[in-house]
Amino acid sequence: MYEVQKRDALAPGLTLLKIRAPQIARKMQPGQFVIARVDEFGERIPLSVADWDNESISVVVQDVGVSTRKISLLDVTDSLQNLAGPLGKPSPIENFGTVAVVSGCFGIGPGYALARALKKAGNRVIMIVEARNPDWLFWQDRLEKVSDRLILTCNRAGADDSCATNPVKRLIESEKIDRVYAIGCTFMMMEISNATAPAAVPTRVSLMPLMVDGTGMCGACRCLVEGKTVLGCVDGPEFDGHKVDWNRLVERMRSYLDEETAAMDIWDRENWHLATDRKAAQAAHGRV
Question: Residue 212 pLDDT more than 70?
Fold first, then answer.
């Protein structure tokens, strides 16, 4: 059992959990992930890691399905049934020069961990954060400490930039960007890859396709990269964004959308009281 040591409602639908897992934490590297199972009836799902120390790891959980909702409702002293990791290949960290780290939603967490490592390696780090609205912006103080420049984009009326694509394009036009990283939702990573392709700026994306075991045995996370089948769990999660078959990836990720929607509807109806408790907790944190 893996005990929750801290819980923080970061934004609507985004929860930070600090989980005691010393054996995992002491081996964790930027870019890697864990596979979590909330209880004996839960499915195994991948979670990117945002921070760690010698005793614990921190994950940012986005409430999008039954399993992530159950995990996000855990509180201090509650426990996860299983936690496996670190999994996946770590991001190669070296001094590339000037790098842009683009992140959004749950990706802000692992984006912070990556930017911190790149900054420590001597890179000039430009951090670009994409948010649906101002309430989805979090960890700005942390991000400023690990970057030389922080650019915030927000989907709101009157904003100069509603997404991260525009500042990425402007950076490429105005200065030499040696490498771009994108971590977050699939659509955002695809758009960033499309924006950097004409200038041939090396672009790395962190894919998180459907997974079951996370060790390469089930094949559920297979993707097409440069026309070849790869496994997101053991060959990734980081890949060349210009070589990913994004259409195929999106198609596979939507394979069980109807079943996921139905499962969420059933769970919400059977656990309506938990939803009420969640709204009360968000109100206490000013996140309603």
Answer: yes
Q: Are residues 117 and 177 in the same domain?
A: yes
- Whether 201 and 99 map to the same domain: the answer is yes
Same domain, 168 and 238: no
Q: How buried is residue 253: exposed, middle or buried, by Cβ count under 10 Å (0-12/13-18/19+)?
A: middle
The two structure tokens encoding residue 79 = 């426990």
Q: What is the pLDDT of residue 60?
A: 94
| pLDDT tens track for 185-201 | 999 999 999 999 999 99
Contact 251, 209 (CB under 8 A): no
pLDDT value at residue 288: 40
Dmax over Cα atoms in the chain, in whole Å?
54
For residues 76 and 42, state if they share a domain: yes
Domain of 168: which CATH number?
Answer: 3.40.50.80
Backbone φ and ψ for 97, nearest 5 degrees, come out as 125, -115
- Residue 259's pLDDT band, with cuts at 50, 70 and 90, is confident
As given in the structure block, the two tokens for residue 17 are 């959990």
pLDDT digit string, tens, across residues 120-132: 999 999 999 998 7
**Structural domain boundaries enclosing 107:** 92-206
On the question of pLDDT at 117 being above 90, the answer is yes
Q: How many helices (H) and strands (E) are present in the chain, helices listed first?
A: 9, 15
Q: Output the pLDDT for position 281.
A: 52
Q: Looking at the 3D structure of the chain, how many domains does it have?
A: 3
Q: Are 141 and 129 in contact (CB under 8 A)?
A: no
Say if residues 232 and 219 touch (Cβ distance below 8 Å). no
**Residue 3: strand pairing partners:** 79
Rounded to 5 degrees, φ, ψ at 130 are -110, 130
Strand ordering across the sheet containing 179-183: 149-154, 124-131, 98-104, 179-183, 203-206, 238-240
Residues 120 and 61 in one domain: no
